[in-house]
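Internal QA ticket QA-208
Title: Verify multi-chain structure generation after dependency bump
Assignee: T.L.

Test input:
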Amino acid sequence: MGWKRKDLLGMQDLETTEITDVLDTAVSMKEIASREIKKVPTLRGKTVVNLFYEASTRTRTSFEIAGKWLSADVINFSASGSSAEKGESLLDTAKNIEAMSPDVVVVRHKAAGAPGLLARNLRCGVVNAGDGLHEHPTQALLDLMTIREKKGHLEGLNVTIVGDITHSRVARSNIHGMRKMGITVTVAGPPTLIPPQCQELGVKVSHRLEEAIAHADVIMMLRLQHERMQGGFIPSIREYSRVWGLTLTRLQHCRPDVLIMHPGPVNRGVELSPEVADSRYSVILDQVSNGVAVRMAVLYLLAGSKGA
Amino acid sequence: MSLLIKHGRVIDPAGGVDAVQDVWIADGRIHKVGKSLKAPAGIETLDATGKVVCPGFIDMHVHLREPGFEYKETIASGTRAAAAGGFTAVACMANTFPVNDNRAVTDYILARAKVEGVVRVYPIGAVTRNLEGKQLAELAEQAEAGCVAFSDDGQCVMNAELYRRAMEYSLPFGTPIISHAEDCDLAHGRAMNEGLVSTELGLTGQPSAAEEVMVARDIILAELTGAHLHVAHVSTAGAVRLVREAKARGVRVTTEVTPHHLLLTDEAVRGYDPNTKMAPPLRTKRDVEACLEALADGTIDCIATDHAPHALSEKEDEFAEAANGVVGLETAVPLLLDRLVRSGVVDLPTLVTRLSTAPARVLNLPGGSLAPGAAADITILDLERPWTVEPSAFRSRSRNTPFAGFTGTGAPWMTLVGGATVTP
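Actual output:
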């Protein structure tokens, strides 16, 4: 395995071969999850710090389980608000954590670029678990793993990402990752929720849901944050749901083998009707399971593959 | 104080001079400029062979931070930074603490400058009390106390009616209104320019329109009132176009651009270095090209640094949290000499005009020329001097520059204020 990186900061800087490495490693990790005793000694004696500056249940839990199944000591460090509010700078916090000699720091922060700042200043590995609107690479990796698992391959597929692209780090990471893997990506949403010059990222942009999903192999629905009404991005949740919500009726015009994905948590009845969320098309829970496998793979590649 | 500066290339755009000449200074004033002057025996002489002798450079947009933020900069350190950078005068913005919105603060700044300053300091008063955009500051008293212009720089006065009144009220003082053109709603909470780079970095961008709608509004208000509008730190192609059109129509509008908006684009923000964060933000290549073109054709009158010192702790944060602004006094002239003059983008007399003649004219200051009788404020350049930007060597108390490690050739050699050499 040719993994050489100290950190995993984003999909934008990963090579195609590195993405494949992670996905292949994740497949073997998934086997561990199917065992009765879900524990291997791979990271025994290693310390993983979950440094979460933003509320998160599933991502933090997913990293925690991943670390524990690999026998690492996992410490959760929750810090509310920005470093400025706390009066301690992010760098100071980082240096304090460094003094405790962790092997990997998993960081989520509301500021884009914060994991990069830590990575430049810490000797240990840094995993970006979501930074502002920038990237969320392990989400993109688990999405790719899920698609590959269900479709058997990635190259040549059509994926449509629907919703609030502007405020989505999941969309950005997936756009970079999917493009590298040979997937054609379409983003769809009202113009207010499509970021400026989005086409230059190499995606198609659509403002009509039916057209955007008609030929998709995969439809990825994004969560709509309720506060978007305040910014004037949408007039109301009601209207958004009527124009952009995915329902069984709308799915009738899609490919019969289409996959429905969602990074969670789902706003049932807003971007996804409950029937769609629970339908046979939905692979939302597979995404969650694969999330643990992908994070095991990432922790292993960063902390474990360099010898114990 | 008498001095004879011999054999330098004298560039005085106001007097149409660009030739090897001598400059004779007597009693702190320019006595005579000409070829092979015969000065009285015993006068101190300075051999400026191979150097360029210019009217003193004036940075019409700096933040000296005193009173209130002396940990960032003081009048003592800021004016030393200015002298080191080749500036003989600076105009300082009003966003101190307390705000320079009344005569007492103006008096204080001038008193400190007299005692501790090493270059001339011209205060700019606030347009509105406490920069709140709600009520006019006492503009008449401030003008009387020595404010050379009025500006809420750092904040945009969103109330058009109030801004109109400020323009009208200040008409008798002959002081320009300097606009920080940035629509608060379009720019709210946005850390960089809106475009492909902001999309990729996941930072919320502000569109060029945030600047342009305000430049358009302020031009229209200047037209309505007949006031002299000076647009601070113009940064977009659209804003440049608006100013050009307004000038052609005869509106009293002038403008300035910063070195960083001439030399960097939003590509510099990749890597999230907070030293690339300022207001207005770094724009695109297209905007930089428009600014350079406007600088050459005179649409942009002045170059000003918007020197904005911040402590390390305010800058080594997450990008979105970090303070806005960069220092510029000690890097501007070397960068401009190398990147603009040496590379042929503008000629040296044009640069001297933008740094000296024009800001003096915009602010109605006594400097900006080497005419007999003028104060002997002189900047002497060495076009062959190699340099590297080393923030640790700054005279400024702050180090927040996006140009650390840049190298080039051509730098200020000597700065004279009132005929006396300033040792920064």
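Spot checks passed. The first helix of chain B runs from residue 75 to 84.
Status: verified.
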